[in-house]
Amino acid sequence: MAGRDLRALFSTNDRNLATEEAFTNRQAQWELIAAALTEHLRHTADPAFDVEDLEAPRNNVMVFHGVGGIGKTTLSRKLEAALGSAERRPTQWGEPTWAGERILPVRIDLARSAGTDFEHVILTIRLALAELGRPLPAFDLALRRYWEHQHPGEPLEEYLRRGGLASRFGKALPQQMQSALGDIAQALLLPGTVGSVVGEVTGSLVRALREHRQSVRALAGCMRLADLLQAEPDVDALSYYPHLLAWELAQLPADKGIVPVILLDTFEDTGDRTHRDLERLLQRVVWLMPNAFFLVTGRSRLQWADEGLQGQLDWTGPSAWPGLATHDIPAPRSTAGVGRGRQILIGDFSPEDCKDYLARRLTHSGRPLISEPLRTVIADRSHGLPLYLDLAVMRFLEIRRTGRTPQPADFDVDFPALIARTLSDLTPDERHVLRSVALLDSFDLPLATRAAGMSHEAPALRLLERPFVRRNEFGLWPFHLHDLIRSTIRTADDQTDDRWSSRDWQQAGERAFAGLGEQWTTTMGPGRVLLVGCLRQGLAVARDFRLDLGWLADAAWAYISDSVWEPLTPAARQEAAGTLATAADALVEMLSALARRQHENREHTAERLAAVVGTGLLPAELHEMGVYYLAKAQRDLGRTEASRRGMQVVVVGGGRLAHNARRGLSHLSRLAGDFPTALQAAERLGWEGRHHRVKGDVWWVQGDVTRGAEAFLDARLEGEEHGKKGEAAMSQSMRAFTLAFADPRTANDEIELAEELLAHVDLRAATVDVRIAALLRDAGTGTGFEDRAQVLAADISTTGLVFAQAKLELALSFHHAIRDSTEGTAASISRLRELTREGYYAYYVDIAHFMAGVPLGTSSQARWIDGERPTRQRWRDLVIARRDGLRNTR
User: What is the assigned CATH class of domain 664-889?
Assistant: First the structure.
């Protein structure tokens, strides 16, 4: 299924190069057409079908719409060929169910460049029906009358010859029209010389029809013929003549019947949303020929089912065009049933189809000229848009003509032609909106209007109907541009007449940034979802256009306040990335590092944050944010002195994170084993410093799991009260971990709750706590405990969370103590000493001794709340209680 690609053929001197206009399979579209045409044939074959019923809903049209260059015209041509000849139908399309029917495809290109007017459309349809080999007297007489009034002195034969229609369809139409005129004159007993005078014949026929003469009974069945012959023969009347064609087709004997399938291509060139004169005439053709099937291809969907077009078109609304409605509408008067999916958006090629297209488009000695690696690069770059593939082929030939072998880097470009094709049928206002929303990953109507700086929404509303604007009903902002079109508009060398200057782009960036900020600060709705969405887009716009942070500063504080850590990394910078030159660059990097720290080694997080802090680009409060989270990362890595210095800087600064930094210093006291100091500090932290969670962290290491679990419960409830999902999840994770030492059955429920809360946030450390809790719950059993611990240890090692490794080893110590494994206990204590050799968490070694009931060799110098002896006893009691519980269950 390929034709000669003349443009490519004339781009090279290599006569061994085969250039084919490759057609990539559109089997899914063919199957939809086959199903719709089968339904149409079934409907028109029903005895209740009446071709003269002008009130029944119409379901005889299917629309394929898509962006410029998506392959609509190619599809239209191939459908014409496939419907006209089984030999020309791709084998993969399969055999249609209407094999016994006589299908007549008639393709009409409505493009402005084709010079097609409404007369041309009507003549094309009639000329195609000349294949019947017989006159269609009702229509032919009306057409002959129209022609003599509108083209006096110009023979129809000459017009058809000059317009190329005679060569396409033959010269049978004038003879058939003359034959029809003569037959009517004879039936009316008019003199033979009068038979060629259409006015005399028309007048006599109208009188005969009005008088119900027997001599014209063959035409008397057409109820509206007389009215049409008496109407002024202008273009408006011509648009109603297809009713006569439909009636004539309905009179054909069953063995002579034919079903026209009329393909109207480039429908967007019939006019715009304001000027619908030609569209109104074409709609009449579709409505008045219910026994014909119409396949429309164009850039936009048909709006005929929209109620708002009443008065602009003759038949509008979902009850008139059920198949064109946006949702299924029952059609009670139509045996065709419910209109389903008659407006089809033609999608992009799959990567496989792109590569296949490129392989078959250019061949040399029967082999693909474009290499497989190059085909992959071009296919990936195209985003499935056939026009890009076509332009890439021409670029390949252009580079090859210079004597150089094309390389993958040669196709890391955008094609300005894509912009011209995209903008060609847009109004100036629509083009302005399109360029503005190209700055956004996604948008809604208000945001598009605001980004364009317009006071009215109409241009944006019209743009949303275009096929290159994709819709995601479940997105925060439901609309986004086709990826390739968006990137091309933003980066290609725009040569259009209304192209933007760099200042125009800068102003658009400022408007888009302001619009995002306004939506975050004023819109009621999904607060956290909206915050993250505005941050992702706002960070990218501020970075790319070097804008002041503005509302981003407050949004950044709102983002970190809940410890949820949704991914924030915006799209890559358009120019070279890797340098931090503005405050926006620094904020992008800092927030991206904070979000990514849940998925990468803390070492890398610390490096990224240190780089941000070192630039000094951020305002004071945001700079302290970087210092604080750098100190947290350093604490996780065991660099406690550096962490302490950072926390003290934030406390002295007295900013928004001062409470958090005080909590950080409390944690550092706890890590050093100074529990009284940590507990005393917790009393002064309040909710802002998460006092309950700090207390819980102190109490559980004392072996007082009851008091520790209660503190974590209070922390969770307080987090829920303040609407902080992250705090609630972290506190519940530690409650589950703490209770897992004491009661496996209670721990089950607590672990499940923790997992449920963690499902809504992204907290790697808390997730590890819950996994350790699951191990503690099973400690002392033969449930593959040590194998599970090894798997978890491997996962923890990728995070760089030193404290989590020590906590896991403590769980192993608990397991060995329950099983009274001297060797296992010794090995765990040895590993704990190695993990805590810097002095922090060194009391874990003490606790391992307490659990096993063995004396300390060298004390960690920990300051226990109520002394070493009670603490030792509480840990030993937990081991004995678990051992007894396991013995009782056997």
Answer: mainly alpha
